[in-house]
Amino acid sequence: FLDTLDSYQTALPEKEWTSYENAEVEIIKELRRRFPNKIIVVNRAFRIFDSIKKDINGFLVESLFFGLDEKLNYVKMPESHTKHMLKL
To answer: In Å, how far are 33, 34, 37, 71, 73 from 6, measured between CA atoms?
Structure first.
């Protein structure tokens, strides 16, 4: 399970995203090559999905309908957020 593969977007300037995404793709493809029979599930790998879809077994979208607020309580996500995520 590879968690929050979109986190780099909050830590890096956008001009660096492509190189980071390329590295994620390489790692996932190498994991598949080394472990052909293992299950690989990614979380929030929206921007690299087309490059890895043949190498993964599952795709998770954390916080699609519910997520955590600042006090770590589960809350319903705004409908606009859910609709936006479903379009990605």
So the answer is: 23, 24, 25, 22, 22
